[in-house]
Amino acid sequence: MRDQDFYATDRPEPSKPLTKFEDSALFFMLLIALGVISIAVYLFIPKVEHFTYDPETGKAYRQWTYGTVDVVEPDS
Fold first, then answer.
1. 31 lies in a domain?
2. Which residue, of 26, 33, 34, 61, has the greatest Cβ tally within 10 A?
3. What is the domain range of residue 64?
4. Distance between CA 23 and CA 16 in Å, rounded?
């Protein structure tokens, strides 16, 4: 009985070129994946929700999506 040679160094068979269907399916899966990634990145970018202006001090406060508040100093 012959033992299996698990560490054989035979040359792998060269891969065949993709068919038009496989090529187009791969292209559209790549587009869908890039679309999902870009939507996820867009949703996690913080955005300014609203500004509040205090006329007594002349300062504006901007509130970001995730709750942080910044003070915007007026230009001199």
1. yes
2. 61
3. 20-72
4. 12
Pairing of strands 48-54, 69-72: unpaired
> What is the chain's pLDDT, residue by residue, as a tens digit (76 residues)?
566 666 667 677 788 898 999 999 999 999 999 999 999 999 888 887 888 888 888 888 888 887 788 888 766 5
Buried b (16+ CB within 10 A) or exposed e, 43-67: eeeeeeeeeeeeeeeeeeeeeeeee
Region of residue 66 (phi > 0: left; psi between -120 and 50: alpha; otherwise: beta): alpha
Of the candidates 56, 54, 55, the residue with the CA atom closest to the CA atom of residue 69: 54
Residue 11 lies in a domain: no
**Amino acid in position 41:** V
- Total domains, the chain: 1
